[in-house]
Amino acid sequence: MPRRDARFDDFVVGPNYALVEALRHMPxxxxxxxxxxxxxxSGKTHLLNALCYQVRESGGRAFYLALKRLPEDAIGSLxxxxxxxxxxxxxxxxxAGNDRWEEALFHCFNRIREAHGRLLISxxxxxxxxxxxxxxxxxxxAWGLRLPLLPLEDDDKLKVMELHSExxxxxxxxxxxxxxxxHHDRNVSALIRAVDGLHKAALTHKRRITIPLAREVLLAEKx
Length: 223
What we know:
By secondary structure, the protein is α/β, with parallel strands linked by helices. Helix content is 45%, strand content 11%. The protein contains 8 helices and 5 strands.
C-alpha cells in the first residue's frame, strides 16, 4: 500500500497544478498513457503512489512498480498487469539500455494498451534523452501524454518541510526552516531527510529544535 503521505492532497503543487489535475483525471480515460519526467526529489514517486491510492479508494485495482528496487530476475513480475485498472512504473531511466527489461516492458505496455488499461511511467530523463536500445519501446512511450514536473520555488519547499514536520509531530520554527533552505542541499528529498535528521537528533538528545541543532545535524551529514 502507498505511504500515508502519498496522496494528492499532501502534495505541494507549486507550478504543477495543471499536471496534477491531469493525473487526477487519468483514471477516467480508457487506455491512457502518461510519461512523467522530473528531476530527483521532484515528487514523481509521490504522484505515482497518490494515483494508485486514488484508484484503490474508488474500488479499482492499481499496481506500483519501482524499477530501481527490482533485481534482474524480477522481470516475471510484469506478467498479468494488463488485468489491472492502473499500472505505475517508476524510474524508467534505471533500465535504459538493458535489453531484457526493455523487451519485457515493451510487451507489458502493449498488453496494457490492448486491454484498455492505464499506464503512468516516470523517469528522471526526458524520453529523448533516455537512449533506449529498443526503438519500438520509444515509439510506444511517445504515443501518450508527456508531462514535465517543474521545480518548486522556495516558498513551496518551505511548505513541503512544514507538512513533513507536522506529520512527524514537530513544529519547526520559521528560522530553522529558513536555515535549512539556505544552508542545505535544496533538493526536496534532501530537505525532507534533513527534517528527519532534526527529528531524530531532538529525540535522541532531548533538545529543542534550534538553529544550533540544525547546524550540528547538517555538519554530521557531511562527515
